[in-house]
Structures are given as C-alpha cells and as structure tokens.
Amino acid sequence: MALTASSGSAFSYFEPSVIYGEDSRLDYFEISNPRVRQLTDSVPAFFRASDFELTNQSARFSAPTYQKYQDLCSDQPFLNQPTAAFCTGALIASDLVVTAGHCVKTDEDCHDTRLGFDYRMNSQQEAPQSIRLENLYSCKRIISRKFFRTGVDYAIIQLDRPVRGRAPLKLNLSGSSMRLGSELFLLGYPVGLPVKLSDRARVRQMNAGFFITNADAFSGNSGSPVFNPSTLEIEGLLVRGDGDFDLDRSRSCFVERRCTETGCGGESATLASVLRFPLSWKAPQPQIEEGAANGYATDGRAWLRTVIRVPSALIAHHFALSIEVYSRADRRFELVHQFSLPKEPYGGQFGFEIPFSIGDPGLLELGSVKGRITLSMDGRPIDSEVIPIIATRPDRVR
User: Fold this and answer.
1) Chain CA centroid to CA 173, Å
2) CATH number of the domain within which 130 lies
3) How many Å apart are CA 275 and CA 220, to the nearest integer?
4) Helix-, strand-, coil-residue percentages of the chain, each rounded to 5
5) Is 291 in the same domain as 271?
6) What is the C-alpha to C-alpha distance for residues 230 and 300, in angstroms, rounded to an integer?
7) What is the pTM of this model?
8) pLDDT tens digit sequence for 285-335
C-alpha cells in the first residue's frame, strides 16, 4: 500500500552523540584558521519553518538552552547556548545542499525546512537569537535521497533561490584520498547548538559507501560535512553514531557521554564519492530511498518495508521491485519475489510493506542473511541496494 508524503519514514534511527577522548569542539570565534572559518559560511543549519517569528529583516527563534534541553549538569560545556537547529548541510552549488537522508525524509519535510547561514557564536557572550532573512532559504525539492540504517544515508536538495556571496564547498567525488588513519575535521550544529568545529578526528574503518570516524558529534551533526584538512574537500557526510547522554545518578542530571579515541562504535559518514552518480543527473530519477527487511527463522516468512521515489515525468512507465536472497551454498543471489508497483496518478514518494518468503529458513540461523532489492522501469534495472534481512521471533510485535 502506498504511503502519502506525510507518513514520513518507516524506520527509527540512532543519531550520533558522543565525545571521543578530549572534547575538541570549538565555537566560531575560537577558530583561528581563517580558511576553516570561511568554510563555515557555506555550512547551513536546518530549522523548522514553525520555529521562526518573522520581522522586517530577520527570522527570530525561541529555543531552549542546551542545559534546559538535555537537563545537563552544571559542569557541561555550552550550557547557555540555544539549541535551535536539528541538522546540518553543506552548500555544494549555488542552489544545492547535501545533508543526511534522514534529515529530510519526505517532500512535506522539505517544504517545512528552512536553511539558515551564519548561525554562530561571534563571541562568548553573543548567543544568536535570529537569522537574517537574506541568509534564510527554503527547501524547494529533493533531487536524490538514500536512507539505509547500516549503509548509505544522504539527500541532495534544491533551494528556493541561488545563494549569493558564499563559495560552494568542494566534494572529493573520487574518494581516492581516504585511508585508515586519515585525519579529518567536521563542521556542524551538535544538538542544534551554534556552529562548532570538531577536529583531530581520524578514519577508524572503511566500508562500502561509508566510513567510521572518531569525530566528536551529536544529533544535530547529522549531515555535517567531514573535511580533509589538507585539501579542505568534503570526504563525507556524518550520518549516525554511537552513544547518548549518560545520567549522573549522584546529581540527577545528564552528562555528555565520553569514549576513548578507539572506544565505542564510532561515528559513520557517507562517502562523498557516493554522490558522484546522482550529481550527474540532468533531472531526478526513480530511486529506492529506503529499505529494511525482517524474517522468521522458524518458517522463512519475511517482509520488506521500502520507500520508492518516482518522478512525476515518469509515472506512465511500469515499475517493479525484485527481492533476492543470498545463498551461502551457491554463493549467489537467488530471486524469491517480484512486486509490480501500482500505477499512481502523481509522482512522489511511495511506501510499501511487501511480504515474501526467503525459501530456506535455515538461511537466518546466523541472525541475518544478505538480501538485494532492485527497482526496474519497463523491465530495465535502474537502482539496486543490498540490505540485511534480520531474523526475528514470530511472537515479536512489529
């Protein structure tokens, strides 16, 4: 059954939220490198339209302080700064911004999102309370989007008008400079705070489509550009992480969670090179935006929850989704189900829950098995994603 745009994402998410080693976050006024300070000019904060009260020249917001928002203990940093933003982006062309796919889940989310520049602390005492209208933009449309909980997560969005006077940031679309141990830094809005620099981070692990780093990051850092300090090119977009705030039971308040430089699970960032293909499009293309699957190890019954985007210009075509399961014995994917998407009068996002059988329930005896979903248009494959099919108990409520 198709979901309307207002239905939102079908999947929950675990946001980045942890400090590794010593806290390396710096406010804008503390950044000494002028080239890094200039980069912040092209890193917008994401806000909700309803958060603002418009005046003649600015959009004022009323946001709780960090201490109040998280019920923090009095010895935590940035206590009196506002927490107005919910995600981070990077300006990559005059009217294009990249961010995490879970930051803008639906077309309705897009239309309700405002992107503001210069949300920053110019001094220790000057906490921002507004964004100048000339620095505030709307999300016009989603160009391309992917949101996979254990894989790629990104969105390319178009703004309502070109940005003037700010240099687009450069993406490393080749990915060739990324290595284990590579040094990194990121810019963003942790927990919605004014922009922060988090440096002295390194690559801890490389994966297909994303890497893991030990950058100090929190929920509002989703979509934060992760930079190479030598080239100042974006190597990735921060999308998910480990940890949360810890309760200090002796004081009945919360503290930021801390891990060693090599501890905890690390923070994941989608590789910038993943964006090379969608950035080459001349017009939006059909895509598998989301996908998650579960199955019963008892009898092999399974179901796929997915979100498909079909541009309005292509609705006359026939679209189908195939589901394959990886056979460890044969070392190949085997087709287990095909599903024809119903005809829709308008383009947009469509959500489906599709029941299928994996065939041999023994494939789930190790807890999961690889699956592959492929979207076809008029019989021609146009998008494909490999996802885990996670074993679950029949008595577990979905």
Assistant:
1) 18
2) 2.40.10.120
3) 21
4) 15, 45, 45
5) no
6) 51
7) 0.91
8) 999 999 999 999 999 999 999 999 999 999 999 999 999 999 988 999 999
